[in-house]
Amino acid sequence: MGLDLALFSAKGxxxxxxxxxAFVAFSARQGPALLAELDPDGGDRAASPGLALDPxxxxxxxxxxxxxxxxxxxxxxxxxxxxxxxxxxxxASAEQAHASLDAVLDRLAPALASMQGxxxxxxxxxxxxxxxxxxxxxxxxxxxxxxxxxxEGVEHARDRxxxxxxxxxxxxxxxxxxxxxxRARVAEALGVPVYGVVADDARGAELVRSGHxxxxxGRRTAxxxxxxxxxxxxxxxxxxxxxxxxxxxxxxxxxAVEVTS
Length: 261
What we know:
Elements (H helix, E strand, L loop, with lengths): L1 E8 L6 H12 L5 E5 L19 H8 L6 H5 L3 E2 L5 E3 L5 H20 L5 E8 L15 E7 L2 H14 L6 E6 L2 E2 L2 H8 L3 E5 L3 H8 L6 H4 L2 H15 L20 E2 L3
Parallel strand pairs: 1-5, 1-6, 2-4, 2-5, 6-7, 7-9
Antiparallel strand pairs: 3-4, 8-10
Helix pairs in contact: 1-9, 2-4
């Protein structure tokens, strides 16, 4: 327990924030769970009903300055998430998010990793070479790059994975959506495990954002069912991995198939 999972997106927004919140809602059924918004482009949740700009990452950065940060310090700056668990709110603007991360992340990342008894998920935003959020990769048990299983999505993932390979002790991919290349084909092409396939489920995402992700109806959505399977895959340490040489090109004529969770 501690910093269990750090999520980066390959390009744009393939549902990384929704996945992070759904994973925390699922984990909160077993014990304390935390979503840390560490996106340098700014957080998405501060403007949501029931949540505010403060407390959060900015207040933690202001209060800690150059002092060491503990897990207990982090818990003093959390807000409850509607669907379950807690949120370390990231500043909404990119300028403020960058400033807060630059000031605190070298001390915050190990503090998150030290939070025994907590399930911690970090939403690190889009993976870039100069992203301050790469600091998190070295402290997380699992780092996952989130992408779609289309040719474009996998090629973007290939490029972004190159920036993470030397930083993350356990690195893989989470696919979004149920159409595209198979999990095994993506794993073969990228040379890293595919931890799971998360449903591209608008209804499930809305239930999570509105606070009903952990309800009976929420748990029955395609999104939450696929998140449960992802959690099982990560816990069992048995995702679909590469079966041949890493980095093989998918090729424009490769067969697109229906994939299942």
